[in-house]
Amino acid sequence: MSLQMDAAELMEFLNEVFPQVQEDFAVEGLSETEISMRLCVQEKHLRPGGTVSGPSMFALADCAAYAMVLARIGRKALAVTTSCSMDFMRKPVAGGDLIATCKLLKLGRSLAVCDILIHSVGQEAAVARASMTYSIPPTR
Predict the structure, then answer these.
(1) Which positions fall inside the Thioesterase domain (predicted)?
(2) Residues 54-74: tens digit of each pLDDT
């Protein structure tokens, strides 16, 4: 199966269905099996000390996996996260943007499995890792 949405279409759809986070994320790259997504860090994403909060990193991982799945299956807003395991490995760079690289490991009829690594921009070592499973709505 090839891409059903390109980066611009993904961002348009995400902004339409999740207007509350319209300025938070940007697609940096997209292929049939991988997406890179940026968290455009703002004050609301920071915890005391100026580093990006865990919930913001979770949101980035979740959004990257959701976008990867949608890129392959098309405009299906009801695809939902069914499972997530996340490891926070090191402190992100204070106030800097984060990049999530999401790899689609499996795309079935009803489930998709993704692995996500999150890095601070300009840093090689990952700050977090997530494994996510999405439920895909049945085709009618």
Answers:
(1) 49-123
(2) 999 999 999 999 999 999 999
